[in-house]
Amino acid sequence: MNPSLPLFAAAGALMAASPAMATDAPIAPKVLVISMFKHEATHWLEREKLDTKTPIAGLSEAFPDLSCNAAGLCLVTTAMGYANAASSISALVHSDKLDLSHTYFLIAGIAGVDPADGTTGSALWARYAIDGGLQWEVDARSLPEGWNTGLFGMYSKAPGEKPKSLYGTEIYHLDDALVDKAYALSKDVALADSDDARAYRALYPAAPANAAPTVSICDTVSGDTWWHGKAMSDAIDAWAKLLTDGAANYCTTQQEDNATLTALKRGADMGRLDFKRIAVLRTASNFDQEHPGQLPSDSLNANSGGFMPSLENAYRVGSALTGAIIADWDVWKDGVPKD
Question: Is pTM beyond 0.85 here?
Fold first, then answer.
């Protein structure tokens, strides 16, 4: 007789009965907000009481937890830039702790804005997210005659020649029904502003740059390199129009969205989530170019007064959508309502 067998049996029985060994049901958020850095997350965490923390393997060391409340709203912070965004969202998508099959996603962050399309504090829903980094670039100090930018499509000959899609991540067209619904729910939200923002935007000669912030729909361009100056802004606007055959109107510039959307698209391709349930909201913290009499380098480092209003408005406008989804979940759970 082996005296150790009863001990093994007892240990096995204890393990089977232990609550720690039980498999918990996966978390199934109704809405998952995606922020990129601490300040973008703060209002959501505090005002929505996202107090339940769940560590997710593979998230950023700085932001290792998924934060949720009992109503079904959750938030993850990716850390900034393409590498962090793609890695964090990939970890989230592949986590067995989550069931994202019916989840709506809201990317809610701040951005630079083209003064032809908005002003500081404005909230801008995107139909298109376009990668601004997947281009060739030649030294702008040595441009061929007739060129107005050194940026152009890979394996094309000059700016204005539409390149072939080489990567498959150059353009994301978000669901029109969700974009329109998000705008309808939020267009009348009262937006925060500041005296500093009003004073700075008055240096721009025309509206909408020198007007009060508003909620609108226009498109966003992603890239890890922060471009700045009117010539760069015009080149990026032309790039967005070129890739979408004129459908996109560039207005905001940010670092992460195409990377985040690529990770979510991979998850959708695996059947883990619905890509039609993704909204992108960017609020303008600064202009992407100088005002008259200013150098682009000075504009880049200027205090435009838009940072705090943009953080506030990302929450105010974004929560108009998230609140509606959670409050009327029976209406939203099967897709964007038509009414």
Answer: yes
